[in-house]
Amino acid sequence: MISNIESDLKSKFPDSLLNVASEDKRITLLVKKEELYQILSQLKDTGFNHFSDVSAVDYIADKEFELIYHLWSHREKIRAIVKVRIPREAPAVKSVFDLWTGAQIHEREDHELFGIDFEGNPNLSPLFLEDWEEIPPFRKDFDTRKYVKEKYYQEDEQYPIVKG
Amino acid sequence: MEEREIAFLTVPFGPQHPASGHFHALMKVDGETVLELEPHPGYLHRGFEKLMEYRIHPQNCVLADRLDILDPFPCELGYVNAVEKIAGLEVPKRGRYIRIIMTELGRILSHITWIGVLSMVLGFDSANKIAWGDREKIIRLNEMATGGRIYPCYLCVGGARRDISQEFVDETSKALDYLEGQLSFYDYFVFKNETFVMRMEKVGRMTAEEAIDLGATGPNLRACGIDYDVRKDEPYEVYPEVEFNVITREEGDAYARSLCRRYEIAESISIVRQLLNNLPDGAFRMELSPVWAAPEGESYFCLEAARGEKCFHVVSDGSPFPYRVKIRPPSLSHSLVQFPYLVKGSAIADVPAIYWSLDPGPADVDR
């Protein structure tokens, strides 16, 4: 089954598939941003009907974010992992909200914590944070300890956290 | 005649503990009917994913506990497994058995607590008190094995922090016998109770297609007839060696979700018994330095927590600290996606019943 999916994708998106790795019950794809939506849509048609998660990793040295979409097929019982690299400056991808309704909340979370724009998502308002004015807090250039010390501690108080 | 805009009443749901458990939502109501529900999570947001980037693996196991207060073992198990997967560590067999014994006891603990809370919000306080009493049996086992009652801080990369004793095995067998007897009591007292059935049947119903589209997992999905259970579909640890059934129902309503959880308790009791009977001897953990560093790489590990599919994505850059940890909590879609969807058009009195039939953990949502 996985080899079918692989060959199908390779014939349809020859330019956008940068890397394909497949295990026993798992297929991992690295794709180009331009055809991300089309590839995810194709995977949905192949049977990946459960949108598990989209996570973001801040590769600050490469000046890139990596978005990782995790899909699961209830019919074939296999997992698909789709990775895409997007620039750190003005990061944006097309929302997959119309393919899986459940994806909306995961995109909203990533928008809040990483500042990634999901174009077409109907609601990207803040989810967990209240009155947040700093840069998105899960980015690598946001220092949680510095922020906490400046915001919540008096100057003469000792820094209570073990330095890592 | 001049048209006027009808002012609908807005009623808050939560965030008082324990009715909604640190979760707040605003309901727009027309008389007794809920028109719309807007969830406002964040009361328990501690930013664990970011905090973990500042800490070494043993410290992160302690943080992982706090991800889901009622069901901490799967959080630890997911984290350590993701890290072990990067390094390709082979955990000793006894360690793996101990881990799954504790995780399955944790599932029973979580489900029994849920029986209590659900009964309470339905105005059925006696069942709540009895369930919280039964919960204590497992909490004492936790304390005996790990030293912690609610937060065990028990699993570590390479195995478990302590070995379990013969006394623990005996006490667990006794507790399981007791709980198995209690299940028929719960059947009589709660699940077959006329009032309970009337409150739960045909309430908060979703079809299998809707449930999949909304991202449901765990008992909430299995109550719609989809047999997705990570323990069976992507087996991890020692699950290939134990026999158990995946409980499914067809109805997809609040009652079906309740029965799924009730029968899962029985399956978990059977799993723990099988593991205790076949508990191997030998080492229970690998000797690793506390500042042991995982090699460069990343892994994605999924497991079946009491509430559904819980996944850990860990990226390591070769230092003792993880570069990034991302947790996929099952409750995120349960309380922020399915709950608002299911309460649309229902009566206000059904809102707590629907909410707790989904069994979301607010700590699990916010992280």
Structure description:
Chain A has 164 residues and is an alpha/beta fold. The radius of gyration of chain A is 19 Å and the shape is elongated. Chain A has a single domain (2-152), classed as 2-Layer Sandwich (Beta Polymerase, domain 2). In chain A, a hairpin with a 4-residue loop joins β4 and β5. Chain A has four helices and seven strands. Chain A starts with a helix and ends in a 12-residue tail after the last helix. Chain B is α+β, with helices and mostly antiparallel strands and 367 residues long. Chain B has 14 helices and eight strands. In chain B, a hairpin with a 5-residue loop joins β7 (308-316) and β8. The termini of chain B are far apart.
Q: Main traits of this protein?
A:
heterodimer; A: 164 residues; alpha/beta; Beta Polymerase, domain 2; two-stranded parallel ribbon; 4 helices; B: 367 residues; alpha+beta; Cytochrome-c3 Hydrogenase, chain B; three-stranded antiparallel sheet; 13% strand
Sheet bearing the most strands of chain A, described?
5 strands, mixed
| Overall average residue pLDDT of chain A | 84
Give the strand tally of chain A: 7
Order of SSEs of chain A, N→C? HEEHEEEEHEH
Distance between the termini of chain A: 46 Å
Trace the largest sheet of chain A across and list its strands. Answer: 1-2-5-4-3
Category from helices, strands and their pairing of chain B: alpha+beta
The oligomerization state is heterodimer
Distance between the termini of chain B: 52 Å
Radius of gyration of chain A: 19 Å
The chain-level structural class of chain A is: alpha/beta
Total DSSP helices of chain B: 14
- What is the percent of helical residues of chain B? 40-55%
How are the strands ordered across the major sheet of chain B? 1-2-3
Largest sheet of chain B: 3 strands, antiparallel
User: What is the CATH homologous superfamily assignment of chain A?
Assistant: NADH:ubiquinone oxidoreductase Nqo5 subunit
CATH class of chain B: Mainly Alpha
